[in-house]
Design goal:
The structure is a single chain. The protein has 338 residues and is α/β, with parallel strands linked by helices. It folds into 2 domains: 2-140 and 307-337, Quinone Oxidoreductase, Chain A, domain 1, CATH 3.90.180; 145-280, NAD(P)-binding Rossmann-like Domain (Rossmann fold), CATH 3.40.50. The protein is built from 11 helices and 15 strands. The chain has helices at residues 38-45, 93-96, 102-105, 135-138, 141-152, 169-180, 193-201, 215-221, 240-247, 286-297, 318-325, and strands spanning 2-6, 12-16, 26-35, 59-66, 78-80, 118-122, 127-128, 161-165, 185-189, 206-208, 230-233, 253-256, 277-280, 312-313, 335-337. Strands 3, 4, 5, 6, 7, 14 and 15 form a 7-stranded mixed β-sheet that branches. Strand 9, helix 7 (193-201) and strand 10 (206-208) form a beta-alpha-beta unit. Helix 5 crosses helix 6 (169-180) and helix 8 runs parallel beside helix 9 (240-247). It starts with a strand and ends with a strand.
């Protein structure tokens, strides 16, 4: 099978490797679509992915064979790559360690993942794709689960005004999840014109171009001079965390969703007097996946405008795609089609 293997020094090579065989309690999955996540782009940019790793954790596919003692799945079942409940003791380090550092601990080359034609999953790992949801849209269930968890942990309440900084895939999903959770008004700040257009198509009440306007002042003005109740930082840019803390209203909440992988400038005296609350989130748990798949299947999260024809790539183009994504980009969502 073809697989995109990380060979170090920002180099991904498409190689032929054996198709794995499912062992006891495992299923073999033929991957249909694999979305490219910003976390993998950071691993590429900072050269911290293990040499020999096949990355990719946002994918949909179908079961082609099952190992011994597998009764939950049958050949042909349509699945997404996660959302299952791990057995006791099999939880991810993120969920079981008291101190956890994703930058240092989060990458492993112990198995091939989504940037390959086939992958092996434990039988408890996948979730079934709901009827009426196609495989392309199902490939975005993982980032949907991330924003569902972010909104659920954000202290957002019915009728709140919300700002979303960044309209990449996570930001566009987050603004929709915030709407589904009862936000009265959602304002999006994004420098790329095409992403601002998609944000409006997906229901943003207003958009701001931070390269032209003072985003802090503009968003405060759009929230009756008070600032948003909740600000979701989905940009992972150096200035945006300070921007979020600066614009949120008194006693409001900032949720850090996307992560910068370098030190960011903060001047706490600018906003500490507002007694704001800063929250963090990471990944999604099984219930978040269930909610995400429900929101997709009911149309409360609309993925169609996020997936443009120009954003589909073949596996052979993955090196070029990653080189493009480490630069300031206007792509909405890149997806590998197998």
């Amino acid at each position: 099978m073809r697989a995109a293997v990380y060979r170090g020094n920002q180099r991904i090579v498409v190689e032929d490797i054996p198709i794995p065989e499912p062992g006891r309690g495992e299923v073999l999955v033929k991957i249909d679509y694999s979305a490219i996540c910003g976390t993998d782009v950071h691993a590429f940019l900072y050269d911290i992915a293990p040499v020999g790793a096949v990355l990719g954790h946002e994918f949909s596919g179908h079961v082609v064979s099952v190992g011994q003692n597998v009764s939950r799945w049958s050949e042909g079942d349509r699945i997404v790559c996660g959302g299952g409940t791990p057995p006791p003791g099999k939880e991810a380090p993120l969920r079981r360690q008291s101190q956890y550092n994703y930058r240092l601990e989060g990458f492993s080359n112990s198995r091939n993942r989504g940037y390959a034609e086939y992958t092996i999953l434990k039988d408890w790992e996948p979730s079934l794709v709901p009827d009426g949801v196609d495989q392309l849209h199902a490939s975005l269930a993982e980032p949907c689960s991330v924003v569902v968890r972010a909104v659920r942990l954000s202290n957002q309440k019915l009728g709140d005004t919300v700002a979303v900084l960044g309209a990449g895939p996570i930001g566009l999903l987050c603004m929709q999840a915030a709407k589904a959770a009862g936000a009265r008004k959602v304002i999006v700040s994004e420098p790329a014109a095409i992403r601002r257009e998609v944000a409006l198509d997906l229901g943003a009440d207003a958009v701001v171009d931070p390269t032209v306007d003072d985003s802090v002042r503009s968003i405060i003005d759009l929230t009756d001079g008070l600032g948003p109740h909740v600000v979701y930082d989905c940009a992972a840019a150096k200035p945006t965390l300070h921007t979020a803390l600066d614009m949120v209203r008194k006693k409001g909440n900032v949720m850090l969703v996307a992560l910068a992988w370098e030190e960011v400038p903060l001047l706490p005296v600018d906003w500490a007097g507002k007694e704001v609350q800063l929250n963090t989130t990471f990944g999604g748990e099984p219930y978040d996946w269930q909610v995400a798949l429900d929101l997709i299947s009911t149309g409360q999260i609309n993925l169609q405008p996020m997936i443009l024809d120009t954003d589909f790539i073949g596996l052979e183009n993955i090196q070029e795609a990653f080189e493009d994504l480490i630069k300031p980009s206007t792509q909405v969502q890149m997806v590998i089609k197998f």
